[in-house]
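PROTOCOL LOG
Step 1. Enter all chains and additional molecules of the complex.
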Amino acid sequence: MHRKKVLLKVIILGDSGVGKTALMNQYVNKRFSSSYKATIGADFLTKEVMIDDKLVTLQIWDTAGQERFQSLGVAFYRGADVCILVYDVTNPKSFDALDSWREEFLVQASPADIENFPFVVLGNKVDRENDRRVPKAKAQAWCKSKASAPLRYFETSAKEAVQVEAAFQEAAQLALAQENTEADFLPETINLGQPTPSHTTKSSCC
Amino acid sequence: MGQRKIFALTLAGKRVWSSVGDEVSESEVSSLTGLCTAVMGVCEQQGETIRSVSCGSGRIVCARRGELVFVAAGSSDCEAYLARELEYAYEAMLMALTSRVHKVLASSPGYDVKELLGSTGTVLSSLEAWGRTRPEPFLGAARAARLEASRRAQLAHVLASARKISGDLLVFGVALCGDAVLSVLQPTPTIERRLRSTDLLLLANYVRSQRAALVAAESSWLPLCLPRFDERGYFHAFVAYLDPAVDLCLVLVAADDKPETFATLRNVSKAIENALLRDGVLDALRDAAVEDYRAADRIAETAKADHFIFSRRRPLAAQPPKEPRAELALAQCLSARAVGTHHWAHYHALALRLRCGSAQPQHALATDPNTSAHDLFEAPLAASLVYATSNARTYFALTAPNFELYATFASLAPASDLAKRTHHILSLIKLEEPAFFFDPVSY
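Step 2. Run joint prediction.
Step 3. Record the structure below.
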């Protein structure tokens, strides 16, 4: 059985306090802590999973939701294979912010195929169903409106490990499907009539 | 941190190649690669460039080259040395992929270049291993194979004729003996466009690293970039082993990949082989292959040196009023066989001192005018030397505009004695210069 090693870069975005760090910790470490600590800049964890006969390493980047860290975006988003957008089902403001998170990501990461870049949307904290203020249908409608094929949507609870595994598995699957579909490497034969590149004339030795 | 490790990554933090190979999983190196690309990215956003990070006794050196990032981590090597290793790794990668790899990554930052590099990752691994034990990367020079001057002239004549037989399709021709160079055919070099010694040593490394496949194939047709010559496109190289038993190999390089060019170069290769057989040159080349390090070892023994490496930047006989051709010469090196690896760390330390300008003036050792490098190499004032002692050995470096010499002596000899022994090495090399080094055939 052929087992190819692949690294997939997963970015988690969303307002502060929606549970991005908790989701990542639940998925990677199977742990949940109810105490809140704001993420400074970004953090990442890795996890190996098997997807369609491929051994895949997910490098999951948990970014800071706070506005003061937003300028660091491009350094972390570059080369992302999939983006997970997270909101809190008990906080409508965090749902309203999904548009700007998505746009910010597409601007900063500038993927080759903006239309088809894979996003997965998570409505987190469904363990607090009684406090829900964003109906599931509203979130699904938003997901349908963003691309020709609806964005994949999961309702999760990092606290009770509801749908966390499935959501990340889906993200990895989508990322893997994207692999190397965007560009072709077309080697070119040297053209000796072409002027010499300037940098080679600068170096006089060796 | 331990032994030096080298990684090539995309800006997304994805590993393209690493000296630790595929046995170490992505998740094991992911922390380092993720951290490096994030730190570099953040620094770049602030308008800064990060070159190295010290952490305890360890050091991480980073270099961004277009859309790629090269990282070296080690505890015993200096920053300058690690930075040069990264430069070689980058150029070996360009040899396999050309600078087009940057275009692909710019449009698709998540692209899996590792897959693109495929089996040529072994070329980088081979070069990395060279960096630890061999003089070529250290001196930035291709190793020349010793061959009697008259035989070398015959070989040069055969290569020059090959260019005519090819109908001018042949751009470069390189005769290799293992990883040492016997002769080179090249276009007349200019400051703008010329074959560099780095390209030549990368080519020798490439052939060596792919030896098994090349020998099995009898003749091969490979796309190859010579990055210092022009990193933007591929040449196409016809590679054939004339005698695999002694690693005699011919690399014929053309600037197009047409099937008829391959057929022409195959005929040219056959013509070269026949000419070498007819004139008895092939036997001389076989002898050269067997000789390999022996001549340099004899010099070391005669001069009572443990080991030495020597690089000729341009012909020693050339007079200082600079001839343009001399300026364009290919750097070539000569080396005694290394026993153990203790020399390298000391040579690196000496090289660093020379670059930092902490060398003694060369007359410090030349107590006797007859032992001055002046007489031998007409490079009196610009020559500089450094030496250091450690574990009852003396490590010595002497550089001048046209050469570099690094030597190890198994004693704590007085300075005047060191000067005599060094002079001895230099005079023996000069005596056999036409045999030790080749003059490229230019058309």
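Step 4. Note key features.
DSSP finds seven helices and six strands in chain A.
Residues 27 and 165 of chain A are 6 Å apart (CA to CA).
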